[in-house]
Write a structure and sequence with these properties.
Helix content: 25-40%
Number of domains: 3
Distance between the termini: 43 Å
Number of helices: 9
Strand content: 35-45%
Order of helices and strands: EEHEEEEEHEEEHEHEHHEHEHEHE
CATH class of the largest domain: Mainly Beta
Radius of gyration: 25 Å
Shape: globular
Number of strands: 16
CATH topology of the largest domain: SH3 type barrels
Strand order of the largest sheet: 1-2-7-3-4-5-6
CATH architecture of the largest domain: Roll
């Protein structure tokens, strides 16, 4: 999730949903009574002599006063139900009921009566979930740098490089041109909070890039991949064959995998530092003992959805982190057996039976 605009004075926030996980966090941010503005499909009513008929569905931007929010896991959709308060005049839709279906890649504007502490907490957690993947592509005469997000690539800079001459070593010439530039590029990407960086180049240039990047010792995770043509063309070549997308998924799923690994280790080594199931997690929250809350995505579809949402809201005030676990992960089976919810604790709790 990306916060595109935050207006504290008017309690307004504009968001871009990036991944299916963002729909869970959006469901925690949108409360009954809020105003939600987004693009949606609405059927036009056509007045004829014989009466009013249903016309075609058109894409319009509407504002709803929210009555209810429903999450639909298997359609990757968050349904916002409410009454239309703003719409194009020609649509004649004000006062009518409508449902906006929000999906990854879409934007929404949310206006609340008040933005409370736990709302800010949810925003912080949600916006830290997905880090962009840096892509640096070196070609014959061009260096291109981009940020890969779920909805696409953002090219942040291109730089013309002198073309290597036929005299002298090709690798030595590339090395001279890239040595200082690559260091600055890495520093820039580290400052942008990327999750990892992929360096792409044709084979000979890639060997030089690998040596130079290794010498810099970046704090970021780095990967190297070969492309037939570097520069801006190399970035788009990566996107076409899905290599970068696969790398991005690794970065995106890293927090979930890491949290599950810690949970499994503690459950085996120090079970007192783990709460399993809804009742144990609720008790741990009462003692403000929850450090990391883990929630299986499908738990929001269970018959205890409302209770789960209450736990998530409380965890947003107490926990250091909230991690939504995709049920597709192989390691999620342990969490599923625990009712889809668990927590890593700051400290051990005395048994409730003591």
């Amino acid at each position: 999730m990306r916060v595109l605009e935050l207006d504290d004075a008017h309690h307004r926030v504009r968001l871009q949903l990036e991944t299916p996980e963002d729909l869970y966090f959006a469901s925690l941010l949108i409360d009954p009574g809020d105003l939600v503005t987004a693009w949606t499909l609405r059927q036009v009513k056509v007045e004829r002599v014989t009466g009013v008929e249903r016309g075609e569905r058109v894409r319009v931007r509407l504002t709803l006063r929210v009555k209810k929010v429903e999450f639909q896991r298997f359609t990757d959709s968050l349904r916002v139900l409410g009454v239309i308060v703003e719409a194009p005049e020609w649509l004649h839709a004000k006062g009518a009921h409508h449902t906006i279906a929000l999906r990854p890649g879409e934007e929404l504007e949310l206006e609340k009566a008040a933005v409370l502490k736990h709302h800010y907490r949810i925003l912080r957690i949600a916006t830290s979930r997905v880090k962009p993947l840096g892509v640096v592509s070196v070609g014959d005469g061009e260096l291109a740098v981009g940020l890969l997000r779920p909805q696409g690539v953002e090219v942040i800079s291109t730089l013309v490089l002198p073309r290597p001459s036929k005299e002298g070593s090709f690798k030595d010439q590339i090395r001279r041109e890239l040595e200082s530039r690559l260091k600055k590029v890495i520093e820039s990407l580290e400052g942008r909070g990327v999750g990892a960086v992929v360096f792409a180049a044709p084979q000979l240039a890639l060997e030089v890039v690998r040596d130079l990047v290794t010498a810099v010792k970046p704090r970021l995770k780095v990967r190297f991949t070969r492309v037939s043509e570097g520069g801006l063309a190399g970035i788009y070549e990566l996107l076409r064959d899905e290599r970068a997308r696969g790398m991005f998924e690794e970065v995106r799923l890293a927090p979930a995998k890491d949290a599950l690994r810690k949970l499994l280790e503690l459950a085996s080594r120090d079970p007192g530092r783990v709460a399993l199931g809804l009742s144990e997690v609720k008790r741990a929250l009462e003692f403000r003992a929850v450090k990391i809350l883990l929630l299986l995505d499908e738990a929001l579809l269970s018959s205890r959805r409302e209770e789960v949402l209450e736990v998530l809201e409380e965890a947003s005030r107490v926990a250091e982190d909230v991690v939504v676990i995709p049920s597709a992960l192989e390691e999620s089976a342990f969490l599923s057996r625990s009712g889809g919810i668990a927590a890593i604790l700051y400290f051990r709790l005395m048994s409730s039976e003591a």
